[in-house]
């Protein structure tokens, strides 16, 4: 979109401050430029030519987690996240601080197979290094099944339906067992599952760093591949992928995929309590962590909670459910702020002493595992798989 469009959008701001109400970075550092309103003011200055890029201005614009807590709060209807994406695109050439992150992200999304091979070779040095730096909570097991050269179809005997999987980079690379769990659950419920060839990154990590042109290319590739499939739904285990493909592709390339859905929305009417084993002898307590892109971006909060309760887990509630501070590359480029957000988030959970933390996002799992060291952090699909009765 033209810069004049964004300038017009920015000129709608009446500086009411409503967008700061739930902004996690403003909550942590209540100075104007670390909140939504202040960032927009900086971007207005930048777009109108009154401000020039500088390391401080760049840091303020890149210190947004893109959580979306400000989405829908603006009385004049400004799409704050889209404006911030645009601002980052404007700043990418002058933003030296994140240039290596851009190079790595761009390379790994354009050349995923080569990147995977390089990662496999260097993992024994790289992973311990990242763990020492506090960027990884555990040493991941890289999956040999990461890349697919042919269409994979997981068939069922009594077919109720057919769905596709958008695997997503984090799941593919660090949590391949979650994909297996999802396929197992789908098979138990009678759904044939298709994994098409050629899926690429959803593009969100590129947009986060301002690399819009490459995100557009990837979005078009995914749209071409997945829109040809004859399936009733496209499931993703990652809310960022889901939000990106469903709600952000229309703004990025003019078309999204309505069939893309998160697993809790898909399973909510298929998993009533009768589908689960009785766990009365071993009831576990848990807290559910809302991934920001699921809660704010897609408006989904009740469905995962209802499914967790249906499995027999004793779901505890906290007064506050905060952003965990992961936000992809944000946890690397804004490490201190990310750690402070994590600290507050986990402290809230520990007050109610759950036996485990359940979430629906692989990124949140990485982040929460860094702090909640003595508590298992599980994806909802693991909880479902564990409690689900075999096919009758
Ligand atoms: S997306 Fe989140 S961190 Fe960024 S300005 Fe909005 S509320 Fe604040
Ligand atoms: S809510 Fe909208 S109008 Fe109010 S300060 Fe934020 S961006 Fe401006």
Question: What's the quick description here?
Answer:
With 392 residues, this protein is of the alpha/beta class. 49% of the residues lie in helices and 9% in strands. The longest helix is centred in the first third of the chain and has 21 residues, at 112-132.
Task: Give a written overview of the molecule.
With about 400 residues, this protein is α/β, with parallel strands linked by helices. Among the domains are: about 5-90, Fumarate Reductase Iron-sulfur Protein, Chain B, domain 2, CATH 1.10.1060.10; about 275-385, Rossmann fold, CATH 3.40.50. The protein has 19 helices and 9 strands. The longest helix is centred in the N-terminal third of the chain and has 21 residues, at about 110-130. The radius of gyration is 21 Å and the shape is globular. The structure holds iron/sulfur cluster (SF4) (2 copies). One iron/sulfur cluster (SF4) binds near residues 25, 64, 65, 66 and 67.
Annotated CATH topology of the domain at 273-387: Rossmann fold
Number of helices: 19
- Average pLDDT number: 92
**Category from helices, strands and their pairing:** alpha/beta
Features of this protein?
single chain; 392 residues; alpha/beta; Fumarate Reductase Iron-sulfur Protein, Chain B, domain 2; Rossmann fold; 5-stranded mixed beta sheet; 4-stranded parallel beta sheet; 49% helix; binds iron/sulfur cluster
Topology:
Elements (H helix, E strand, L loop, with lengths): L2 H8 L13 H5 L7 H12 L7 H8 L17 H12 L7 H12 L1 H21 L19 E3 L6 E6 L2 H6 L1 H13 L2 E5 L8 H5 L3 H15 L6 E4 L2 H15 L6 E3 H5 L17 E5 L2 H6 L4 H9 L3 E3 L13 H4 L1 H17 L4 E4 L2 H10 L5 E3 H8 L5
Parallel strand pairs: 2-3, 2-4, 4-5, 6-7, 6-8, 8-9
Antiparallel strand pairs: 1-3
Helix pairs in contact: 1-3, 3-5, 6-7, 9-19, 11-12
The structure holds iron/sulfur cluster (SF4) (2 copies).
One iron/sulfur cluster binds next to α2, α3 and α5.
């Amino acid at each position: 979109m033209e810069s004049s469009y964004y300038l017009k959008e920015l000129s709608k701001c009446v500086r009411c401050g409503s967008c700061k109400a739930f902004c996690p970075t403003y909550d942590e550092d209540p100075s104007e430029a670390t909140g939504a309103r202040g960032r927009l003011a900086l971007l207005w200055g930048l777009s109108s030519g009154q401000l020039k890029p500088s390391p401080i201005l760049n840091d303020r614009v890149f210190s947004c987690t893109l959580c979306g807590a400000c989405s829908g709060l603006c009385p004049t209807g400004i799409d704050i996240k889209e404006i911030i994406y645009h601002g980052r695109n404007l700043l990418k050439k002058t933003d030296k601080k994140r240039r290596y992150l851009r190079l790595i992200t761009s390379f790994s999304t354009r050349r995923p197979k080569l990147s995977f091979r390089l990662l496999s070779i260097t993992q024994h040095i790289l992973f311990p290094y990242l763990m020492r730096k506090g960027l990884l909570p555990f040493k991941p097991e890289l999956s040999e099944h990461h890349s697919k050269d042919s269409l994979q179809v997981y068939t069922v005997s009594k077919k109720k339906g057919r769905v596709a999987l958008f695997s997503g980079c984090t799941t593919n690379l660090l949590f391949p067992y979650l994909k297996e769990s999802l396929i197992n659950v789908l098979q138990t419920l009678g759904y044939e599952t298709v994994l098409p060839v050629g899926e690429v990154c959803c593009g969100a990590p590129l947009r986060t760093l301002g690399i819009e042109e490459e995100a557009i290319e990837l979005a078009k590739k995914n749209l071409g591949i997945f829109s040809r499939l004859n399936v009733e739904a496209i499931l993703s285990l990652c809310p960022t992928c889901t939000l990106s493909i469903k709600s952000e592709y229309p703004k990025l390339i003019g078309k999204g995929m309505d069939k893309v859905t998160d697993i809790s929305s898909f399973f909510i009417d298929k998993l009533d309590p009768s589908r689960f084993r009785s766990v009365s002898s071993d009831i576990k307590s848990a807290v559910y962590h809302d991934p920001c892109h699921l809660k704010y971006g897609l408006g989904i909060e009740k469905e995962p909670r209802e499914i967790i309760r249906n499995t027999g887990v004793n779901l505890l509630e906290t007064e506050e459910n905060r952003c965990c501070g992961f936000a992809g590359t944000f946890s690397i480029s804004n490490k201190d702020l990310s750690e402070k957000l994590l600290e507050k988030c986990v402290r809230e959970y520990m007050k109610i002493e759950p036996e485990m933390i359940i979430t629906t996002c692989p990124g949140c799992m990485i982040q929460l595992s860094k702090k909640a060291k003595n508590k298992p952090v599980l994806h909802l699909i693991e909880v479902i798989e564990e409690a689900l009765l075999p096919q009758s």
